[in-house]
Design a protein that fits this description.
By secondary structure, the chain is α/β, with parallel strands linked by helices. It has a single domain, classed as 3-Layer(aba) Sandwich (Rossmann fold), CATH 3.40.50. The chain has 7 helices and 8 strands; from the N terminus they run βαβαββββαβαβααα. β1, α1 and β2 form a beta-alpha-beta unit. α1 packs across α6. The chain starts with a strand and ends with a helix. The model has no long low-confidence stretch (mean pLDDT 89).
Length: 179
């Protein structure tokens, strides 16, 4: 079984995290891109009408023999819409998967992620890592959405987050390394 890390990132934060995890786990990294420019309007439309935007590469790149870690932002409490095609693909396959995000966190953690993933994929993920930018910011500040949206993680942040993520991914890594 191969371990594949599929990531989407609008700001670059989740891409940096995905690349770091892939490097540490010696896994293949797939960087998802959209065919059209992402705007606040397209984000709102996708969320409101439950749309799945067209992305590259095709979700067919995931195989039955893969263990998959999806990495991406959370928008309005839900997994970013560009990852929906990959969740639909996972629904058709019986391969293990997990989800990781580095999201703003100004309003707290995303408590419904596991339920959404379970509903969309039709089975629960092995792990859900909900890491927040707010937790990276100075503790004496009370970051706003604007503060967390503007923040770009540093190399030190990426290392910290990767080290936090690895123990939680043991179940996926074990299944991904099995031959």
């Amino acid at each position: 079984m191969n371990l594949v890390i599929v990531s989407y990132s609008l700001t670059g934060n989740n891409r940096a995290l995905a690349r770091s995890i892939a490097k540490k786990l010696n896994a293949k990294h797939i960087d998802v891109t959209e065919n059209k420019k992402r705007t606040m309007g397209t984000t709102f439309r996708d969320m409101l009408f439950n749309l799945t935007p067209k992305t590259e590469p095709s979700a067919d790149i995931i195989n039955r023999d893969d263990g998959v870690l999806l990495v991406g932002p959370v928008w309005m409490g839900s997994v970013a819409t560009p990852l929906r095609a990959y969740m639909k693909r996972l629904r058709k396959l019986d391969c293990p998967y997990a989800f990781a995000t580095i999201s703003g966190g100004a309003d707290g953690h995303n408590l419904k992620l596991k339920d959404e993933l379970t509903r969309r994929v039709k089975r629960a993920p092995l792990a859900v890592l909900d890491m927040t930018i707010a937790d990276l910011m100075p503790k004496d500040e009370n970051p706003t959405r604007e503060d967390t949206s503007a923040y770009r993680i540093t190399e030190e942040d990426v290392e910290t987050l990767t080290n936090q993520a690895l123990p939680a991914l043991e179940a996926l890594v074990g299944k991904g390394q099995a031959k």
